[in-house]
Amino acid sequence: MRILVSNDDGVNAPGLEVIERIAAVLSDDVWVVAPETEQSGASHSLTLHRPLRVRRIGERRMAVDGTPTDCVMLAINELIPGERPALMLSGVNRGSNVADDVTYSGTIAAAMEATLLGVPAIALSQHYGGDAAVKWETAERHAPELIRRLVDTGWPDDVMINVNFPDAAPDSVGGVTVSRQGRRKFGDVLSERIDPRGRPYYWIGGMRNRDEDIPGSDVEALGQGAIAVTPLCLDLTHGPTSRALREALK
């Protein structure tokens, strides 16, 4: 099957090399269209006020000076000739994308865009802690078979799959857990500093507040050393509130 690969860490990121090798295990028809530079935190943003440039690196490898969403939109609608991809893989992201992180993540956004365009998509992220080296080998070892099983099972057209690998050696992974989205807020720490001209500026910190104890969450699964598989629906409508409002406003 034809596979499209993208990410948000940029075309030179080590995680992109990992996902290219993962895709190559699954198919000999792999296309890479990734951002020219790191786009972490870009979320599902589009570049609307300037033209986009495409740099061709190889026959099936391109870099776009835009967001992950730009990359996937261009790839599916313009850059890949002939048949559309049968699967889109986003990642492997350096660091987990769980809980509230998914609303900021360019890795998730790339998979969302593919889903909106009718291409089944899986986002993959490798969790790591502190200053420890990222265990890319864990994602590389476990991803191919997991992707095969997910594709064989299938999922609805308005759903994408979010996969997070734990900060554990490949042989120490504690199985696969189908989890729900947890709660954990990014950027709680803001650091104010002064520039050389005496004007204040701010850094949004990477600290997070404490994880809420939600049984069955993606955060809990990673904490237990398991691979967290979370289906995310693109329809953000909250059913119970909609029903209550219809009753109240009729």
CATH class: Alpha Beta
Portion of residues within helices: 25-40%
Query: What oligomeric state best describes the polypeptide chains here?
Result: single chain
What integer value in Å does the Rg equal?
19 Å
How would you describe the shape?
globular
Cross-sheet strand order for the largest sheet: 3-4-2-1-5-6-7-11-8
Specify the CATH architecture: 3-Layer(aba) Sandwich
Distance between the termini: 49 Å
Beta-strand percent range: 15-25%
* Helix/strand class: alpha/beta
- The CATH topology turns out to be Stationary-phase Survival Protein Sure Homolog, Chain: A
The biggest sheet, with number of strands, parallel, antiparallel or mixed sense and barrel status, is: 9 strands, mixed
Q: How do you describe this structure in short?
A:
The chain is an alpha/beta fold.
Task: Reconstruct the topology from this structure.
Elements: E1 2-6, H1 14-26, E2 29-35, E3 54-58, E4 61-64, H2 68-79, E5 87-94, H3 106-116, E6 121-126, H4 136-153, E7 159-165, E8 176-178, E9 190-194, E10 200-204, H5 218-223, E11 227-233, H6 239-249
Parallel strand pairs: 1-2, 1-5, 2-4, 5-6, 6-7, 8-11
Antiparallel strand pairs: 3-4, 7-11, 9-10
